[in-house]
């Protein structure tokens, strides 16, 4: 039977690429999103065209009740969740002195609390099978100081720490937890940067380019597979040399 994978924030960008890649790997994929109905349905259609099953589920993963309802719908339809990719995240760049409380709250609500809500609900299902995989999307910003990203980097630092502790707590139950820390990836998040910022960022990447979303999805695929069966609690950096 196909493994059931939930990818949060899968209507676009890295999440979309992960959803398509996991479908290619033979999984049934749940495409979570919060606003972009048409984009999410397009991902589902693309997966179905590959011959795999998929379902779009609209839910704000920063809202614990919506997460619970999403997991209820998924398990009612498919009975199980084998893989969770905690990917939905936002960036609100601003310098410390300009810090806006609303942005601060939104970043922590989604990038940190949202990951906890999804992990907790998914693990409740994974426990029964004594197996499962969780992948948390972090960022190289958690390790390399980028001015303007105080809040974002703090949320991703929290993701790294939660990955390690969750991994240790869940290893006895056959559940592996790892994180992926990409550098700059060519998505809407990066498209929205002012051109001069993009140029500035490109200069600090030794490989001289931003990552393609498929390069991130390849690593996520590896972490979901038996090829990484002895790996847990790791934060894997994929940044074209940015952090060197
Ligand atoms: P993106 O292109 O902006 O896409 C974000 C996705 O998250 C969309 O599918 C969006 O769906 C969904 N989303 C946003 N808020 C949500 C919510 N409250 N509940 C559920 N889904 C929500 O982002 P991305 O660049 O692919 O980034 C994905 C992850 O990678 C993030 O965690 C980010 O921090 C991390 N990352 C990105 C980069 C980069 O350079 N792009 C680098 C390092 C790490 P809707 O459109 O429907 O809202």
Could you give a short account of the major beta sheet? Answer: 7 strands, parallel
Report the total helices: 8
Radius of gyration: 17 Å
Order of helices and strands: EHEHEHEHEHEHHHE
Give the distance, in angstroms, between the N- and C-terminal Cα atoms: 42 Å
Query: How many DSSP-defined strands?
Result: 7
Please list the strands of the largest sheet in the order they lie side by side.
3-2-1-4-5-6-7
Ions, cofactors and other bound molecules: NADP nicotinamide-adenine-dinucleotide phosphate
Average pLDDT, all residues: 97
Shape: globular
Structural class estimated from helices and strands:
alpha/beta
Helix coverage percent:
40-55%
Low-confidence stretches: none
Beta percentage is: 15-25%
Structure overview:
Helix 1 runs parallel beside helix 2. Strands 3-2-1-4-5-6-7 form a seven-stranded parallel sheet, sandwiched between helices. The chain is built from eight helices and seven strands; from the N terminus they run E-H-E-H-E-H-E-H-E-H-E-H-H-H-E. Helix content is 47%, strand content 15%. The structure holds NADP nicotinamide-adenine-dinucleotide phosphate. NADP nicotinamide-adenine-dinucleotide phosphate (NAP) binds next to helix 1, strand 2 and helix 6.
Entry keywords:
47% helix; seven-stranded parallel beta sheet; binds NADP nicotinamide-adenine-dinucleotide phosphate; alpha/beta; 8 helices; 15% strand
Annotate the secondary structure layout.
Blueprint: E1 4-7, H1 13-24, E2 28-33, H2 37-49, E3 54-58, H3 64-78, E4 83-86, H4 101-129, E5 132-137, H5 150-170, E6 175-182, H6 188-191, H7 195-203, H8 213-224, E7 235-238
Parallel strand pairs: 1-2, 1-4, 2-3, 4-5, 5-6, 6-7
Bound molecules: NADP nicotinamide-adenine-dinucleotide phosphate.
